[in-house]
Amino acid sequence: MEGTNTFKKLNGHVVICNCNEKVKTIVEELQNSTVQTPLDVVLIVQDSQLWQMNSAWHPIISGTARFLVIYGRPTDETVLKKAQISSARSAIILADPKHGKLADAPSSLNAIAIERANPQVHTVMELLSSMNRPHIEQSEINEIICLGEISEKLIASSCITPGVTNIFENLLTTEDGTPQIFIDPIPQRARQLSFRQLSRKFILNEAPFLLIGFIRHLRNETRIVINPKSIGLLSKDTPLPGRSKLITMGYQKPDFLPYL
Amino acid sequence: MDSTQLIKRHSLKDKIFELLEPYDGRFRSTPGSLIMDVIIIVCILTSCLLIPLGYYFPEYDAFFWELEIVFTVLFCFEYLMRWFVSVNPITYPFSLFAIIDFLAIMPTLLMIHADYIFLPFFRGLRLLRLFRLLKFIRYRIFFYRAYIGLRNWSSALTHHYHLRQMRLLFLVTLLFWILGSNLLYFTETRLVGHTGPYANYWQAYWHIIIVLVSGIEDKEPLSLLGRIEVSFFLIIGICFAGLVTAELVSILVKKMNRSGKIQLKAPSSRLHHHIVIISFNSHLFNVIKQINAAIKGRNQIVIVSQRGNNIKIANPRQYKKVSALFGDPLRRSILEQAWIEHASRVIILSSDRDEKENALEKDNRSLMKAIAALSFNPDVHMTVELQTQDSLRYASHLAGVNYIEAREFGERLIGQAVMNPGVTEIYTSLMTYTDDSSEFYLIRVPEELVGKTLKQAQLFFLDLDDEPMILVGIDRSPNQFPTSNFKLNPVSDEDGLSSPGVLLSKKDNLILIAYEFPSFARVNQDDLWKGRILLRS
């Protein structure tokens, strides 16, 4: 379902800049998620011909969530306004196939334009060359996903622990009956409890999720701790203050309170 | 259940066990166990050497006998310690190695009482001490590894320094030296008598070697025939000097040409439990980096590629255990040279050599390489990088092969990053091997947890402070096809595999998030020796 230029008011939607073969799966994942509310998606396409020629890239829309297409340059302020970037939840910047292997530069510029238009939006950028990662990490882009890096890491992981790719595949799938990793703020009642205490409570109360780590803010730094050790500054016995987040593995977004 | 039981066992009885039986289902052989192995091997050799020495030097018999008593006491102590740490002390004395150990000490124990009952068999009993040579059977892996290591080292040296040519050159020089010295000696003594410089037999050797290696005449023969012969050897000497110089220059040039490139695999080097990476693309270096970070360069890596002779590297130190084999991976002779039938793992990268090839063609090429590698080693764990999801549909017919189609993972990860902001870093951390990051591991259920519920096991691992790990799932797949039947985070309202009340059996595997392969995990000896398990340290 493709939209016209007249959109109703959007809120908490996802803006995807550029189109390539990944659009179909991404949109379907966002709109068919059994874990979260399906999200409205706005796609900004620079090359209308490229989009129309590749019907295999078009997602199949089956739910109530909307999928809208805008033609124009994603760096253009008016186009971003039309995509209602100011009220968007996230922006995904895909590599434009027109630029080939050099798409990282235009993608970064798109991301910068989006961050300027709405600094609160969560930006996710597709990176082609891992060599460019250190430069792009200096910008305000929130998450950078490089397929090459994923491939390398998965190949090595699969080589060391055969079958581990199935575990990642299982975790990354949003289909019903597969777990995912969630990051949520620590509930008020759990503040000042340690990882060990929280884990014990969740296991004993048969919570449908597993606590696998936490995120803590130390001075100006955000530290992600998965499988905390028993010693050190951020150990499994360190009390978790209010600003911490819990990393869990579960089938649905966790509701901590009944299990505390 | 107290989780410290496992740690205590590991710190007390297991430590002695590990010291004495480093290869028995353990994935780590500590420096202590290596020293212990060497001490026992030296003791066995020396004690066996005492037997012939006793015959040749009967005057030192008393001293040898005292040494024999010392060795026997040591072997008795070793026998008792092995018995003490054995899994089943009742059946241990009847095991093969226990019988061998007993045979090693029995003759001396009998000899102590031989004066009374076994005097007629005394000499025979002394010979029976040679039974302790059987103790070497226990150390067959040690010797095998030493042999393979030495052989690979010598073949690499032969290949890289042209030692075969140098050896041939040396042999020919030796032949000419002996021939020339004898020829000159006989010519001179026959024609001019015992007055010339070549009249002394050993002096002739000295003069001829000078002629051969320096190409200059040392002492002039007196006879005409002798002079003709020396002239001939002078020419030969000049040729030798030229050949040696040429070989040395060739070695230097070859070394210079190969500097900054991955070393080539020596044709005769034998490989076991190594990792074969077939084909080349830009992912190669990071894959090697990841693998080396995970296994600390423990296993050799061989790259088989048509660009194998020209793979440039920035830091040769990081590639000490990496070698390249130049050739088409689809040729059987090339795969044979890569010792693929003895490889622990095979990785097939999607080659980017031919830019005109589309993704499907690249995948087909990769799959053909997978089929070729599997024809040599059908049980090997294989990872194949694919470009398209279409290929996955028919590729799945090759059972037991892991396929990586990064696009699929990437698309899903992008979706997850939107729904759960910050999640990519967690996935990246779980996929990366460093000393400070956790990864997924599969281990057999430890004996202490057999019959326990998953919930009990989770609490057990929560309190295992020496090695932090989180139990996240259970895997009930057959050994050949890991994670084909597994469940992550089993929830309470489901039955069977997914219930937290499920009882863990001996055949189950646990899926853990840990910093490294748990040290207490008892691994199957067969899996270890056949390289099905790659060790981290």
Characterization of this structure:
The complex is a heterodimer of chains A (260) and B (537). By secondary structure, chain A is of the alpha/beta class. Chain A contains eight helices and ten strands. Chain A has helices spanning 23-31, 48-53, 77-82, 104-117, 133-137, 147-160, 164-172, 195-204; strands at 14-17, 41-45, 67-71, 90-93, 122-127, 143-146, 180-185, 209-218, 221-226, 245-250. Mean pLDDT of chain A is 87; it is low at 1-5. Chain B has 19 helices and ten strands. Chain B folds into four domains: 4-143, Four Helix Bundle (Hemerythrin (Met), subunit A) (Up-down Bundle), CATH 1.20.120; 163-258, Helix Hairpins, CATH 1.10.287.70; 275-404, Rossmann fold; 438-529, Alpha-Beta Plaits (2-Layer Sandwich), CATH 3.30.70. The mean pLDDT of chain B is 82. The interface between A and B is large, with 80 and 82 residues.
Tell me the helix content of chain A.
Answer: 25-40%
User: How many helix segments of chain B?
Assistant: 19
Oligomer state of the chains in this structure: heterodimer
| DSSP summary: helix tally of chain A | 8
Q: Write the element-wise H/E pattern of chain B from the N-terminal end onward.
A: HHHHHHHHHHHEHEEHEHEHEHHEHEEEH
As a whole number of angstroms, the C-alpha radius of gyration of chain A is: 20 Å
Overall number of strands of chain B: 10
Largest interface: A-B, 80 and 82 residues
Q: Can you say what the CATH homologous superfamily of the largest domain in chain A is?
A: NAD(P)-binding Rossmann-like Domain
Helix and strand content put the structural class of chain B at alpha/beta
Q: What is the CATH topology descriptor of the largest domain in chain B?
A: Four Helix Bundle (Hemerythrin (Met), subunit A)
* CATH fold call of the largest domain in chain A: Rossmann fold
Sheet with the most strands of chain A? 6 strands, parallel
* CATH architectural arrangement of the largest domain in chain B: Up-down Bundle
Classify the beta-strand content of chain B into a percent band: 5-15%
Q: What kind of sheet is the major sheet of chain B?
A: 6 strands, parallel
What are the segments of chain B in which pLDDT stays under 50 over at least 5 consecutive residues? none
Percentage of residues in strands of chain A? 15-25%
